[in-house]
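Propose amino acids for all 104 sites.
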């Protein structure tokens, strides 16, 4: 585990895995796994959290911030919450199997 982070913080970093058609394509092609993460998470924290929870070695982390959609209710405009996604590249030969809830 890289860095000197508290275990409580690392357990709160990952919100959920993103299981979509695009995420499945990315996982097959680039050997990456996509997670929704808290908005203030840093790349080293995300790497440490994935290594702690799934017992795998992380090669790199890319982060994407998505703005929430603007929605209208009557004459009032509002905005949905934004989302921060982490694209986690695992070292070769490693895999995370979400159906079993652990590493393979």
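Proposal:
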């Amino acid at each position: 585990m890289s860095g000197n982070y508290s275990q409580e913080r690392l357990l709160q970093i990952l919100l959920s895995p993103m299981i979509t058609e695009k995420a499945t394509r990315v996982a097959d092609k680039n050997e990456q796994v996509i997670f929704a993460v808290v908005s203030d998470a840093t790349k080293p924290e995300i790497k440490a959290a994935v290594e702690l929870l799934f017992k795998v070695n992380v090669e790199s982390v890319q982060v994407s911030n998505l703005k929430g959609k603007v929605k209208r209710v009557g004459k009032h405009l509002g905005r949905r919450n934004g989302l921060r996604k982490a694209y986690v590249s695992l070292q070769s030969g490693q895999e995370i199997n979400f159906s079993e809830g652990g590493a393979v």
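The chain has a mean pLDDT of 88. The helical segments are 7-13, 21-30, 43-54.
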